[in-house]
Amino acid sequence: MAQLKVDFMSKSLMRTVSINVILPIDKVFLGKEEEFKPFKTLYLLHGIFGNNSDWISGTRIESWAKEKNIAVVMPSGENKFYINNEYTCERFSDFIGEELVDMTRKMFHLSNRREDTFIAGLSMGGYGAIINGLKFNNTFGCVAGLSSALILDDVLSGDEGISAIMGGRQYYTGIFGALSKLRGSDKDYEALAKELSNSKDSPRIYLCCGTEDHLINANRRFRDLLLENNFDVTYVEGPGEHNWYFWDEYILKVLEWLPLKEGSKGIDSGNVGI
């Protein structure tokens, strides 16, 4: 299993960015290297206050990526919800849905097929995965949101008197732009879903949320909207709060839901046995 940290200049964000990449590429079989086909790829987004290392430190994603023979690419979202920002000219959505995919396909042995390219995330990253998975539906064949921050109602009712990063209208305006224009925009997951209603190009979607999570009602409402618009939706609830215990359990369920085959066992640095 190869784990890499890559720095490169992003044109969408106009600065050097860091990503973490998991590549199950270093197995050997009876002294011979395996011949690898281009990897199916999961672009995996962290939540608010996190960075591109969160999934590696918080879950067993590395072990499961090896088992499933899938590449995993983890960027940083910098509390910006993975959307384009007209105020700061930071184009996070373009970065996630276009530049990051193009760049990693050039760097690594990744499949360029839609049916092999997936996006997922937790909380803020769940919102980002859903928004960009719907927006760039020709790139991503499957989308998964874990405890997704489907909070547009909260954003639109943000309190002018709160200056904190969550709950304050000032913060939300800085992220989402003019709130009066939010509904119906490409930052509105409901509008994006309705645009793809009955479309053969709509991605498969997996949603999960803990029954003790404050976001569960918002996730249920979005599930219902997706079903009304004839999406292929898998929705799962289970005991759990908004924390890594839940996400560690359910990222494995996401991998089991994705169209993957078990990887060949082989020998690598994690199972040499001596």
Please summarize what this structure is:
By secondary structure, the chain is of the alpha/beta class. The protein contains 9 helices and 12 strands. The chain has a single domain, classed as Rossmann fold.
Describe this structure in words.
- It is a single chain.
- The chain has a single domain, classed as Rossmann fold.
- The model has no long low-confidence stretch (mean pLDDT 92).
- The strands form three sheets. It has an eight-stranded mixed β-sheet with strand order 1-2-6-5-9-10-11-12, sandwiched between helices.
- It has nine helices and twelve strands.
- The chain has 274 residues and is of the alpha/beta class.
- Provide the domain count: 1
Structural class: alpha/beta
Helix content: 25-40%
- What is the CATH C level class, in words? Alpha Beta
Average pLDDT taken over every residue: 92
Radius of gyration: 19 Å
How far apart are the first and last residues' alpha carbons, in Å? 17 Å
Residue fraction in strands:
15-25%
The CATH topology turns out to be: Rossmann fold
CATH architectural arrangement? 3-Layer(aba) Sandwich
Q: How would you sum up the major sheet?
A: 8 strands, mixed
Q: Could you name the CATH homologous superfamily?
A: Alpha/Beta hydrolase fold, catalytic domain
Give me the count of strands. Answer: 12
Q: What is the string of SSEs from the N terminus onward?
A: EEEEEHHEEEHEHEHHHEHEH
- Note the overall shape: globular
Q: How are the SSEs placed, and which strands pair?
A:
Layout: E1 2-10, E2 15-23, E3 28-29, E4 32-33, E5 40-45, H1 54-58, H2 61-68, E6 70-74, E7 84-85, E8 90-91, H3 92-107, E9 117-122, H4 124-135, E10 142-146, H5 152-156, H6 169-176, H7 189-195, E11 204-210, H8 216-228, E12 233-238, H9 244-257
Parallel strand pairs: 5-6, 5-9, 9-10, 10-11, 11-12
Antiparallel strand pairs: 1-2, 2-6, 3-4, 7-8
